[in-house]
Amino acid sequence: VRISRFRLWDLSRVLEIERAVFGAGAYSRGMFLELYRDCGGLFFVAKCSGRIAGYVVTCAGRKKAEIVSVAVRPDRRGRGIGGALMANTLQALEDTAVERVELTVRTTNQAAIRFYRGFGFVSGPVASGYYEDGEDGLRMWRQITAKAEKTHRNPRRRP
Ligand SMILES: CC(C)(COP(=O)(O)OP(=O)(O)OC[C@H]1O[C@@H](n2cnc3c(N)ncnc32)[C@H](O)[C@@H]1OP(=O)(O)O)[C@@H](O)C(=O)NCCC(=O)NCCS
Asked: What pLDDT digit, counting tens, does each position of 4-13 carry?
């Protein structure tokens, strides 16, 4: 798996995955263009043998970031691709001033909830009727510790 920044020529492939994964709830082309414009620094794609198998996009403010969406092609799941995308995102956030990353996931999406827990996310409040179809959203969050701060706290651990 190779992770790289999303480029405009990746759009049609990302849209294809988006529609296969989220169906009627898929983000539109316009939405992805907006995300690329506003959050392009944390918009990553995963390529397997040169073919895009998944993506993740996160929007960061000064101290807080929000994982907007993550998806892996159904036939490529369970091979570490989502994990690689998430690890890359968390690492990129450590280079910023962001202190906390949050997301919302359908309360019924146990696979994704377990996936996020595996990366240290903890559950916050349930947003009742958060989704357009009326389903509840579970808020999850995780702290981000800046690399510089870690080095400062544990000077002896420096390689
Ligand atoms: C969530 C998703 C991105 C995970 O991608 P993936 O490539 O299958 O994830 P990985 O193979 O890297 O798995 C990483 C870890 O997540 C957890 N995990 C992933 N899928 C899981 C599942 N179906 N059930 C339980 N745990 C799961 C496991 O702990 C796994 O670690 P392991 O491989 O050591 O067991 C993928 O399932 C997906 O695209 N789902 C549909 C879209 C979606 O729900 N997005 C989130 C919306 S908020």
From this structure: 999 999 999 9
Beta bridge partners of 138: 105, 126
The two structure tokens encoding residue 21: 């994964």
The stretches of the chain forming alpha helices (DSSP H) are 11-22, 29-39, 81-94, 110-118, 147-153
Residue with tokens 């040169």: 50
pLDDT tens for 49-96 read 999 999 999 999 999 999 999 999 999 999 999 999 999 999 999 999
Q: Give residue 90's identity as a one-letter amino acid code.
A: L
**Using CA positions, which residue lies closest to atom 7 of ligand 1?**
82
In short, whether 5's Cβ falls inside 6 Å of ligand 1 is no
Q: How far, in Å, is the centroid of ligand 1 from the Cα of 125?
A: 22
Task: Determine the atom of ligand 1 nearest the C-alpha atom of 80.
Answer: 12
Contact residues for 42 (Cβ-Cβ < 8 A; gap 6+) = 57, 58, 59, 60, 65, 89, 92, 93
